[in-house]
């Protein structure tokens, strides 16, 4: 795990939070990415289509029937105006019939459908402040703020909103098991950044991780029996002290993350990657034995120091890593459709403006 570190530079992994990871740093400062010729063939992706156009769009996740996507965006589809922070939207797979499901206040992140498709889950800061949270001071290393998010559920029209967490600080990165029984989420409620589970009515909260450091970005396996997640655990006294100093200021400095798997009850934790890179946004392949994730492990930074985050597929035992995407500097938030026939993800390929990220959909070729 203590291998040569791969620099992340000022390219961030957090859309609004580390729960959403996507080049949040330097909004408007990341250079326009030209559609460079790929260094490899995207042989698993066919019929690629772009569903959003303009602004920052991230974390597009399928409904359990595979007919819709929930995602966060800084571009309001009704007015076509750019907003200062993310709101939550639902759209059809053709990119049409897009509408907002969040309040329009504060900032939102990490949307997810409930089984049945009548309600959605997301995190929002609107209870703490109706304005967008302030961005952390820029430093040589990317710092992400643990803003005061709570988890909410609502109907698809935004009505009947229910607040599911009420503890101070960060509660976000929530996803739901396919069997509809459990929610896994990230919280600072016990003084560290850990994973928790709860029933879908918000009761029965259980802490799943206890290692010092960041644990988050969790998703269930297709059979709901296991959880895949990303983690960054300090390895030296110096790293531990730096982590605690930042956490005391509600900050975290993500850099080197590895992918882990555990049982849904928190037992049998196993580290899958050990490459010293920034590995995040893991999601189970529909066969339940492989994991797709985003990482800068395969491509060195370019002449300007910009890392290249691409999608990769790896076996659950850590073997057989295969690069999936090759175009653009940022590809992340992959999710397979429930039937395994499609892949949704976010990319800066074909961008026309600085800081633009869009939702893409492709047919998956085994």
Descriptive keywords:
26 strands, Neuraminidase, globular, WD40, four-stranded antiparallel beta sheet, 6-blade_b-propeller_TolB-like, signal
What is the strand and helix layout of this fold?
Layout: E1 45-50, E2 57-62, E3 68-75, E4 82-92, E5 99-100, E6 108-113, E7 119-124, E8 144-145, E9 150-155, E10 162-163, E11 171-176, E12 182-187, E13 194-199, E14 206-207, E15 214-220, E16 226-232, H1 237-247, E17 251-252, E18 258-263, E19 270-271, E20 279-284, E21 290-295, E22 310-315, E23 322-323, E24 331-336, E25 342-347, E26 358-364
Antiparallel strand pairs: 1-26, 2-3, 3-4, 4-5, 6-7, 7-9, 8-17, 9-10, 11-12, 12-13, 13-14, 15-16, 16-18, 18-19, 20-21, 21-22, 22-23, 24-25, 25-26
Give the percentage of residues in beta strands.
35-45%
**Shape-level CATH architecture:** 6 Propeller
Helix content: under 10%
Q: How is the biggest beta sheet arranged?
A: 4 strands, antiparallel
Mean pLDDT: 89
Overall shape: globular
Uncertain regions spanning at least 5 consecutive residues: 1-38
Signal peptide: 1-22
Family: Belongs to the TolB family.
Keywords: Signal
InterPro entries: 6-blade_b-propeller_TolB-like (IPR011042), WD40 (IPR011659)
Describe the model:
- By secondary structure, this protein is mainly beta.
- The chain has one domain: 6 Propeller (Neuraminidase).
- It is 3% helix and 38% strand.
- It has one helix and 26 strands.
- It has one helix at residues 237-247, and strands at 45-50, 57-62, 68-75, 82-92, 99-100, 108-113, 119-124, 144-145, 150-155, 162-163, 171-176, 182-187, 194-199, 206-207, 214-220, 226-232, 251-252, 258-263, 270-271, 279-284, 290-295, 310-315, 322-323, 331-336, 342-347, 358-364.
- Strands 1-26-25-24 form a four-stranded antiparallel beta sheet, with no helix packed on it.
- The chain starts with 44 loop residues before the first strand and ends with a strand.
- Mean pLDDT is 89; it is low at 1-38.
- InterPro entries: 6-blade_b-propeller_TolB-like (IPR011042), WD40 (IPR011659).
